[in-house]
Amino acid sequence: MSKCTFLTKGRILIEDAKFAFRKTNFSGEEIRDPKTNKIINTEGKRNFSVVIEDPDFAQELAELGWNVKLKKQYNPDDPIIHYIDVEVSFRPVRNTPDLEVRMITDKAQVFLSEDTIEILDHSEISTLDVIIRPYTYTKDNGEDAVKAYLHKMVVVIETDVLDKKWGSMEYPEE
Questions:
Q1: What angle do CA 109, 8, 12 make, to 5 degrees?
Q2: What pLDDT band is residue 91 in, cutting at 50, 70 and 90?
């Protein structure tokens, strides 16, 4: 089970986190609803959803204005799963340190940039730790709300059996 902790400045730490959905969008590709063809993610908007396994922590976040959602249950016996959507932005924000994303394999540690983070969309992740920062804003109805932004992420990539045996290849720069 993941461990959720409040940090300074309203940030939250989720250790041993899990993505709420198999599909992440670190590449920022446009995504359309297959049934309606309506755009549900505009091009350039990078994001993912993370599970909040502790229901008390999820409730506390909701009370603070975070947009905590419930994953759709297909069976009445399915567990209730809380999650939040997290925006990934490499744009510098006033008084906020730059986004840091570190990827660890059994061979190396590398920092991912805006140009390389999309590799996570196709990676098998064994461990995920994230720090998420809040951005408080006022909605059109005058109500305060919190949008979640990625502050820091450490991702351990599962190396498959062939890469373990033969090593991974480096490709020449184009």
A1: 60
A2: confident
